[in-house]
Amino acid sequence: MTTLRVELRNSPEKIRLPLGFSFSAIAAGLKVSGRPDLALAEAASGAAAAALFTKNRVVAAPVEVGRAGLLSSGGRVRAVVVNSGNANCATGHAGIQACERVCREAGRLFGVPAAEVFPSSTGIIGVRLPAEKICARLPELVILSARSHSQRGVLAFAHAIMTTDTRPKIASARFRASSTEGSKEVTLLGVAKGAGMIHPKLATMLVYLFTDAGASPRQLQSLLRQACDDSLNCISIDGDTSTNDTVLLLASGASGARVRDAGTRKKLSAALNAVCQSLAEQIVSDGEGVQHVIRLFVEQARSREEALVVARTIAHSMLVKTAWAGADPNWGRILAAVGRCGVPIDPSRVQIFIGDQRVCRNGIACAFNERQAHRDLAQPVCDLRVQLGRGRHLVRFLTTDLTAEYVRINADYST
Amino acid sequence: MTTLRVELRNSPEKIRLPLGFSFSAIAAGLKVSGRPDLALAEAASGAAAAALFTKNRVVAAPVEVGRAGLLSSGGRVRAVVVNSGNANCATGHAGIQACERVCREAGRLFGVPAAEVFPSSTGIIGVRLPAEKICARLPELVILSARSHSQRGVLAFAHAIMTTDTRPKIASARFRASSTEGSKEVTLLGVAKGAGMIHPKLATMLVYLFTDAGASPRQLQSLLRQACDDSLNCISIDGDTSTNDTVLLLASGASGARVRDAGTRKKLSAALNAVCQSLAEQIVSDGEGVQHVIRLFVEQARSREEALVVARTIAHSMLVKTAWAGADPNWGRILAAVGRCGVPIDPSRVQIFIGDQRVCRNGIACAFNERQAHRDLAQPVCDLRVQLGRGRHLVRFLTTDLTAEYVRINADYST
Prior knowledge:
Largest interface: A-B, 68 and 67 residues
Shape of chain A: globular
Largest sheet of chain A: 9 strands, mixed
Radius of gyration of chain A: 22 Å
Distance between the termini of chain A: 55 Å
Oligomer: homodimer
Number of strands of chain A: 16
CATH topology of the largest domain in chain A: L-amino peptidase D-ALA esterase/amidase
Strand content of chain A: 25-35%
Number of domains of chain A: 2
Number of helices of chain A: 11
CATH architecture of the largest domain in chain A: 4-Layer Sandwich
């Protein structure tokens, strides 16, 4: 039994590849730039699947089709087809038909029902998806993928799903699982793009997780929800949620280890938490115009839900976020945000810390080293702690400052 | 009976002065700039009063003291003392004592209980209020006020309560009230500062309304709440609410007209609505870094509350606000904000209009003149209409774009 390893570097030689999956990507002409925009992840012998989707009432066609497909296939996925450059959202019934056409065509090539092809799209909203362009390149993509169970394929996949991302987001973990059947090596790989809705036309957070552990769709769903609650559900750049957000977990079973074994389940859960946390951090630090990442700890809440309400209100306050952009230890804005969040807090029980220093004691100003607080906030990552004095629950929330660069990026676009 | 007149200009010769009030202002050394920062509004024979306060759980000392004073005096106010340059917030028990000391000293000068002096503060949070500086200048302020029932006094008052405001905000209305006791001329004057919490250290919206109609505190409270619901409660610049927000309505009764007369009440209500609406527009258009004011109409909601939830979500979306900064008719961002607001909308029933043009039909892209939409959004004020297809309720909400200038103003401050 080795200890859990999580590798955060995304150079090809550092990626851990789970057995049973291969990857490829191609430029299908959806991005104006001509960059790769069509990606395929293939499970040669199929995989069990679980997924989480955006909670927005406005959902893109691939979210509807993907959700229906998982239901119809009983949580079985043979291939994932992702395009960037077009979100296929607000496209009505024609958008659904275009997405279904892509799944049908990919299913035909793999010899499986369309429901076993999981679709994702990310890019501009309200523009027809050119399904014909995608279908025309699918055969080549399948041939490429069949030839490459390699780090190179993963990197190509990670690049092709990017929109305004400045770098691919990859994390992997490996552990040994011991059971009565012997010791097996299990690998988990995660690939992600975007962060909430951080771009004018190119929305969406997409996260794909691949493991060679064996599990049922139900077991995966439970593991996935738990891992996301503490990581991908606790990040925010601008508070806007996308119409296409998708997190998909696939398990090929090719390692021989099984999640029904308690030891394996525990380790896979730890690996999932670590990989999702790493991807969450990579996503936030690559947010548009971001200068500083804030690790916000909201503590002493009555419930986790209450802590989340406080964290989200602080993280979405434009006044707080602009103060962070200036590395300004302005705790008054944080206190005022806590005061308006709807939780019946007692200000005289609130403590606020920046870095290691207390800057507000019992809701009132207290002496602190302002230069040190300014220096702490000027770091790429700074810890900020708010204690509510109400209970024992806490949440760890990743967020960012709001810079003039963010405004420039998002204002300078014209439809 | 003349028709209702609302005068929006704030040049001294245009201000309508209600009988029974006088105004003065002075520089007491609270503002570093040395500008006037202490203002007095006096009702020589006292006035009935009603007030609305911030809903933030973190409230400044003057809000606590002012609320308690109104309760203790039975809604009677002899004088309003406002300081800018210091919010007296997050200052603990010492802050309450400092505020009470100012009220006690002013009460002594006027020969009334401290409870009949209504205090307000606006400025930096977490810094001790120098009550001694204020008390030292109160006698001079009282003498000045006694000598001036004039437009000049109102202007001085309006200037002294400013913080980051670039211009004073004044509106007045006058009407004739006819009853069995004959025809009387009634005047309403409104003076305001700020907008939500639009400045790093200088928070707060303060609104003071003065009328020479006669009314009980209870009658005033009902009129005030109704007028604010449709105006000052329907504006937002950044979604942050201040710890000091206060709206105060005083009625001297000096005109001889009484609100218990139904015709007078109706006209005063209309005058209050018009004056509050004008002040709301003046506040929003003077918001920090604001280039464009958006008049947002959310229609076809099940309830007014539901329409407000949708309006606030749109108005606080950083993605939507930055699109407005670029005059970008990006309806996808608006639709996505509607989708995440928590109201169970059906996207296929949503219509979005920019200016006179429909830009989204039944939740899907529709053809429109993009150059015209861009031109409409580039105006100082643009109408934007969102129809939910759920009911018959609507709200009119005033908001603004989010510019790089806003970020610069709010990031460049250092405590």
